[in-house]
Amino acid sequence: WNGPVTQVAEPLKVTKAPLNYPNPFSVSSGTLLGYELSQDADITMHIFDAKGQLVYTFTFASGEEGGKSGYNRVSLNSYLWTRGLSPGVYFYILWSGGNVLARSRMVALP
Q: CA-to-CA distance for 58 and 94, rounded, in angstroms?
């Protein structure tokens, strides 16, 4: 057969589960969230409180830090926690193209 070859794009995957360090962490110092993507993609990260209310949204463009292929490191610094978020349990979800890529939790201490 000499027909054209059609290349099928691999689906986007988080190849290394998101972890934040330190966890638990102090709201005054923040935490770093690291995850690995199989390819460049537009990424949205939602942070929810223990009641399930959305408290913050990050967006990362494809190819830039947070949305690039390979390892990404996102700083959830004290700026975020000094905007009225209190110590407690928070959950974060990584999305791309309407698909949930990963989810996890983190604990913020006073």
A: 10
